[in-house]
Amino acid sequence: MPRRITILVLALALSVAPVLVAQGLPAGHPAQLEFSPQRLARIDTLIQSYVDEGRSPGVVAMILRRGTVAWSGAFGMADRESKQPMTADALFRIASQTKAVTSVAAMILVEEGRLRLGDPVSRFIPSFADARVAVATDSGRTLVPLAHRITIRDLLTQTAGLSYGTGSLIRDDYRAAGLGPAAGYGWYLADKNEPVCATMDRLGTLPLAAQPEEVWIYGYASDVLGCVVERAAGMPLDQFFQERIFAPLQMHDSWFFPPDSAGHRLTAVYSVTTEGTLVRAPVGPLGQGDYLAGPRLNFAGGAGLVSTAGDYARFLQMLLNGGELDGARILSPATVSLMTVNQVGALYSQPGFGFGLGFQILEDPGLAGDYGSVGRFGWGGAYATNYWVDPTEELVVVLMQQLLPSRGLDLAGTFRTMVYAALIPPARTQGY
To answer: What would the pLDDT profile of 400-411 be if each residue is shown by its tens digit?
Structure first.
């Protein structure tokens, strides 16, 4: 092997060490995992350029193949004002990446017979039995009954008719109930001085944005699902996550609200201005949030978790493995397969994609104009975090940063391009 390639392989192998120590993930040489070391090095250059040019304050990212870390890195600052460098064990608000964990929690209960996908939500949250849908009229709006009841499956597929309450027909109702425009950008519940089921009980009295199963609409469905998990399991959502998911998977750095001992690792949030510059986000729901100081009562299954890149990679590796990691069986392979196929037909309108039980699914890479194999699944979070799993390529990829709003930042897409561009079979690595 040429000396330059040897040095690159060694440097890349060493770069993963901090994450491995923290998360117990095995290290591998990129070339042995069919990655070109030179092409992986382009990712370092890419991310560092975003930091140097002031487009992202700091990033932690990981690439796993076949359960082994091929590449990882920590770039920039966790807190620019205090000059705190980004580290592999930095904590990130993962917002809607929480939805995947809540979906897994629900499917654990489905496997145990305590939930069924066809169960009505009103079985667990009675206020949804009388839900109404807001419909526009010439004089304003009218409220009409549900065409059929909302089910657990509707929550998992985001087809329950539940938005984030910011549409013109319903926003005043939601604002008055402390939701929608009164909840940050709509999804923020960490400042609520009440348990999540109290919030969801109130949500059930508010008008829906659409009839269930008629449109794919993004909103509070996973928060409702979190309350369903609480009531079906007979315990708070944070306890269920800890006992049934985090502890078995050795995810020691994932919480709704980090303990005081870990608070110093929570990365600061920044905003991209309309001019494209970075400023520190304000305190409160539109910025730093109430994850360290606040009521610490509302365990929001839609957007509430804080985690690390390594912890979330372990969660995703469990899914790639068919529901198991390091001897801990969370779900059956059949359940993971069910979760990661399109469940909504043509309701998910993004070309080339479908939506499963908690995940976006790549169905046609050509139509989507995106890298990845058919069946790639993933999602992201409002703070500009992103992840995907490619079962065909045996890939798990996590990208963490903290930007709210991110205003057109294209790092995730370019990062994905470079990951796949670096994946080259052994016979073709020479000269790359």
So the answer is: 999 999 988 889
